[in-house]
Design brief:
This protein is an alpha+beta fold and about 250 residues long. Helix content is about 30%, strand content about 25%.
Length: about 250
């Protein structure tokens, strides 16, 4: 089991040219060309559960990001989300005790609770509703740190995401063709585009008005090189992104 996990991690690292951190910095610098980084969001995986050194490791990476991106640590907090909570039967829920200690090591950090965020049947990952709820908690906390109190309309928009849905493409990973499904609660214009890891648009799958309900579109990877890509949907009051993997 440990050998398989180690090999899986090595395969993932290869997708980022052997240096995931450098890739993260590259994407962040691209983002800085068009905007300002107000905070850093972190969601811990399940690969090092119960690692007591986790807070100090996170602090080291945070400090590196602050330096490499020329950010002010006093105005750029780090928000760390819990893994699937014990109240949902989370297999790695014990890690949340360690995550809770992060602010003691990194004062400019905040922990986002995953309590009552619904999870998938594997008790390792959140389901779509759980991810949406956790995402809203990140948003509310970041707005609070910035001193912004959401208006009634903004709160409505946050809650409206429960009525929208972007499905994981199927199959995934895939070679050749895959299907992407989404649901919208009202008639509206929908844009669905595919991007590579550098944020460069690869394809526009649709850009037209749809009736309310569930819809599906097909994506043919054609001669794209294997690797990770993202697809992003934009509609009224709803923007979200998912990842997918092209294999040979």
């Amino acid at each position: 089991m440990c050998h398989r996990l180690e090999q899986w991690l090595k395969d993932i690292i290869k997708e980022y040219n052997g240096n995931p951190y450098a890739h993260l910095v590259e994407l962040a610098k691209l983002a800085q060309k068009d905007g300002v980084i107000k905070g850093i969001l972190l969601h811990q995986g399940e690969s090092n559960t119960n690692d007591s050194q986790w807070p100090s490791k996170v602090k080291a990476i945070y400090n590196n990001l602050i330096t490499d991106l020329g950010l002010n640590p006093d105005s750029v907090p780090l928000l760390a989300g819990e893994v699937v909570h014990a109240d949902q039967g989370g297999i790695c829920a014990s890690m949340n005790t360690i995550i809770a200690r992060l602010p003691q090591t990194l004062p400019n950090s905040y922990v986002i609770s995953s309590s009552q965020c619904a999870d998938a049947t594997d008790n390792l990952h959140f389901n779509s509703a759980g991810y949406r709820e956790l995402g809203k908690r990140y948003a509310r906390k970041m707005l609070s740190i910035m001193g912004i109190v959401p208006t009634a309309v903004q709160e409505f928009q946050l809650n409206e995401t429960d009525r929208y849905k972007l499905e994981q493409n199927y199959p995934n990973p895939f070679s050749g063709k895959t299907v992407i499904s989404f649901r919208i609660p009202e008639n509206s214009f929908v844009s669905l585009k595919v991007y590579n890891m550098l944020g460069i648009e690869i394809a526009e799958l649709t850009g037209k008005r749809f009736e309310s309900g569930s819809h599906s579109v097909e994506f043919d990877s054609g001669k794209l090189p294997k690797g990770k890509y993202f697809y992003r949907i934009e509609s009224s009051n709803f923007i979200t992104t998912r990842g997918m993997t092209v294999i040979e």
